[in-house]
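Design a sequence for this backbone.
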C-alpha cells in the first residue's frame, strides 16, 4: 500500500458542505484534501438547485410568452425545444462548475477523485491510497428517496431523471407535495403538461405556514394543477400508455410518467462511519451543536446532518466547521434563521417560525400576526402577481417569522432574514425607507401596519 498522506483537514464529499469547508479551511492557511467520487459541486450544482431553477426560469419565459397579450405584447408560444433547453441548462451548470474547479485549484486544495471510505477516525481511503486528517469532515450528501413498492426505472422517475427528460410529458403524476414535487409540477404545467400531485399530508408544502400552503393550493388550482391531499401511495403499475398509481383510498390516477419526490435520504451507508464509532439515526449522522460527531476530530455537514436539506445550510455549516477547526470559535448556526425558498409559480419564501410553531413555543396569547396582501403593492400589480406577506411576532416583541407568497418573493427573503435574525421589532423596520415601486416595499408596509401605523388600511 502507498504511504499515507497527512493534511490538516480531509473532507469526504465535494458538494456544498464539503467544498465550502475546503475553501474556507484553505483560506485560513490549513492544508486540505477534498475527496469526491463524482463531479465537484455535488447534487445542488449538477442534479438539484441550479438545473431545476434553470428549468423554472424557462417555464417563466414560456408563461410570459403565452400571456404576453395581457401586457400589450404580441408574442406566441409555439412549444418547448427540449434540446435547446438542455443546452441552456447545461451551459449554466458548466460555467459554475468551471468556476468552482478554478477556485479549488487556486486555493491549493488537493482534489482526490474517487470513492472514499472512512477506515479510521482520522483516515479516508480512496482506491488503496490513504489520506489522514488531523480533522475529518463528513459531507457525503443525499440521494432521492423512494417508497417500498416503487421501482425506479422506465416511466417511474426521480428528480435526477426528470432533469434529463428529452420530451415534455403529456401528463405527469407527482408523488410528494414538498419543495421538489411542487417545483416540477409547476415547470411541467408551464410546459403544457397535465399534472396531478399526491401528498400524504393535508397540504402542499406542509413544512410551511398553513396560510402559505393554502395560498399555493389556490394558485395551483387556478393554474389547472390537480392535487390529492391526505391520501397515501399504495401501488404503481406500468400501463400501455404510462403508469397507473393506486392510493390507499382506492383512488387511481393515470399519467405518462410518475415523478417520485418523497424527500432525500442521507448518503451514509457503506462508507465506514458506524464501524469507526460515528453514531447514525435513521441514516443521519448524529452531531452536537458544533457539528462534532463525538468521535476524534470528526465533523459532519450538509444533508447528512438532521435538519433542513438546503445547499445554503450546508455551505454555512462548512464555513462554520472550517473556522472552528482553525480555532476561531464561531457562534453555532441558528437553524431557525435559515431562509427557505420554493421556486414554483407563485414562489414561496420564508424564514423563522410559522404561526403554529410560534404559538406552541410562546403561547397563544403571546403571539400576534399580520397579513399584507400584495394587491396593494404597485410593483406586484405591474407583475400581475397575487400573494401576501405574513408576519409573526411576539406580542410587544420582535418579529420571529416572515412568510411570503407571490412572483419573485425569493428575492425578498434577504431582508426578511435580517429582520428575523437581528430580532427586529416592527417599529425598527417601519422606520426604514423602502424603494418605490418595489415588491420589497410590501415588507416595509407590512411592518408599518404591525407597528400600528398602516398607511393603506381601510377604516
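Sequence:
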Amino acid at each position: 500500500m502507498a504511504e499515507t498522506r497527512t493534511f490538516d483537514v480531509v473532507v469526504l464529499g465535494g458538494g456544498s458542505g464539503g467544498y465550502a469547508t475546503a475553501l474556507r479551511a484553505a483560506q485560513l492557511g490549513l492544508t486540505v484534501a477534498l475527496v469526491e467520487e463524482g463531479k465537484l459541486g455535488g447534487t445542488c450544482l449538477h442534479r438539484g438547485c441550479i438545473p431545476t431553477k434553470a428549468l423554472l426560469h424557462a417555464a417563466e419565459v414560456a408563461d410570459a410568452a403565452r400571456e404576453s397579450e395581457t401586457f400589450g405584447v404580441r408574442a406566441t408560444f409555439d412549444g418547448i425545444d427540449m434540446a435547446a433547453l438542455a443546452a441552456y441548462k447545461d451551459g449554466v451548470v458548466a460555467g459554475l462548475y468551471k468556476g468552482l474547479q478554478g477556485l479549488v485549484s487556486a486555493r491549493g486544495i488537493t482534489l482526490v477523485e474517487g470513492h472514499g471510505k472512512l477506515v479510521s477516525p482520522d483516515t479516508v481511503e480512496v482506491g488503496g491510497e490513504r489520506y489522514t486528517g488531523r480533522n475529518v469532515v463528513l459531507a457525503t450528501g443525499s440521494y432521492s428517496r423512494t417508497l417500498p413498492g416503487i421501482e425506479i426505472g422506465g416511466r417511474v422517475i426521480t428528480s435526477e431523471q426528470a432533469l434529463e427528460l428529452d420530451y415534455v410529458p403529456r401528463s405527469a403524476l407527482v408523488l410528494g407535495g414538498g419543495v421538489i414535487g411542487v417545483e416540477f409540477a409547476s415547470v411541467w404545467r408551464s410546459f403544457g403538461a397535465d399534472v396531478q400531485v399526491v401528498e400524504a399530508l393535508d397540504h402542499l408544502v406542509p413544512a410551511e405556514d398553513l396560510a402559505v400552503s393554502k395560498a399555493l393550493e389556490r394558485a395551483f388550482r387556478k393554474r389547472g394543477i390537480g392535487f390529492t391531499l391526505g391520501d397515501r401511495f399504495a401501488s404503481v403499475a406500468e400501463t400501455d400508455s404510462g403508469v397507473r398509481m393506486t392510493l390507499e383510498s382506492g383512488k387511481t390516477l393515470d399519467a405518462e410518467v410518475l415523478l417520485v419526490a418523497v424527500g432525500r435520504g442521507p448518503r451514509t451507508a457503506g462508507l465506514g462511519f458506524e464501524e469507526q464509532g460515528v453514531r447514525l439515526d435513521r441514516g443521519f449522522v448524529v452531531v452536537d451543536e458544533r457539528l462534532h460527531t463525538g468521535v476524534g476530530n470528526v465533523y459532519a455537514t450538509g444533508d447528512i446532518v438532521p435538519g433542513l436539506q438546503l445547499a445554503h445550510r450546508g455551505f454555512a455549516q462548512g464555513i462554520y466547521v472550517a473556522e472552528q477547526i482553525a480555532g476561531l470559535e464561531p457562534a453555532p448556526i441558528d437553524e431557525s434563521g435559515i431562509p427557505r425558498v420554493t421556486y414554483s409559480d407563485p414562489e414561496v419564501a420564508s424564514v423563522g417560525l410559522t404561526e403554529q410553531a410560534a404559538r406552541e413555543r410562546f403561547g397563544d396569547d403571546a403571539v400576534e400576526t399580520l397579513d399584507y396582501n400584495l394587491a396593494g403593492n404597485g410593483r406586484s400589480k405591474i407583475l400581475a402577481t397575487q400573494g401576501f406577506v405574513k408576519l409573526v411576532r411576539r406580542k410587544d416583541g420582535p418579529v420571529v417569522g416572515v412568510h411570503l407568497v407571490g412572483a419573485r418573493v425569493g428575492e425578498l427573503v434577504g431582508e426578511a432574514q435580517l429582520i428575523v435574525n437581528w430580532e427586529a421589532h416592527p417599529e425598527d423596520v417601519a422606520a426604514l425607507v423602502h424603494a418605490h415601486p418595489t415588491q420589497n416595499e410590501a415588507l416595509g408596509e407590512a411592518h408599518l401596519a404591525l407597528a400600528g401605523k398602516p398607511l393603506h388600511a381601510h377604516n
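The two ends are 81 Å apart (CA to CA).
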